[in-house]
Records
---
Amino acid sequence: MNEKEQRSYDELSRLHGPDFDRAHMKNMVSDHENDIAEFQKEVKKGKNGLVKQFAENTIPILQQHLQMARDIRTELEK
């Protein structure tokens, strides 16, 4: 685990119930946004055609997951 992941783990391990749910979904949204950015970078600048193809094919799935995470986060914030 890197330092950022450890901080997230430590924070989540102290939370329970709705507080945990909200913090977890906040992390999920952020993680998906970061993943999409990395995959897009690979599509634009990658050297390996197979990896670029995989990234390009996977971005729509990650975008769907991001939207679901955002929707859940919005519901939890009500």
---
Amino acid sequence: MNPPKKLPAAPAAGPLTHFDGAGQAHMVDVGAKAETARVARARGHIRMAPATFALIEGGSAKKGDVLGIARIAAIQASKRTSELIPLCHPLALTRVAAGFTLDAKNHRVTIEVTAETFGRTGVEMEALTAVSVGLLTIYDMCKAADRGMVIEDIRLLEKAGGKSGHWTSDELK
């Protein structure tokens, strides 16, 4: 007869919740948490050559509507976050919105994503993943014209909901 399996070690106390008491990675148990409305906003930028920016701004890129495709890619990525980030919980998203701002002076496109759910864990990773994939899609669609584009400053701007409440980036305070 086989001996009974050992139960996993209790979660570690402290700021790194994805490690148990033995230092092993684990998926955080959110079963006892209350379901609440959760919202997260994230943003990032991509800088490029003036001619590449003009292609996006004018809608004349060879591969088509760069920002329209990047918006769809961002939304799709948010829905697949748990498949990409190993310890993320799959979430039933209730809303994802992706918007773009064109900065002609700096030849830069900014994407901002808001992700929402009603659940036991936050949507920060979904918003950040959406921003990342939206920017990568712009790079992919324009790389034939400009391989020197720079993706930068991907960051969480704000999150709300859950036990930890509302958090806002110092930049927005």
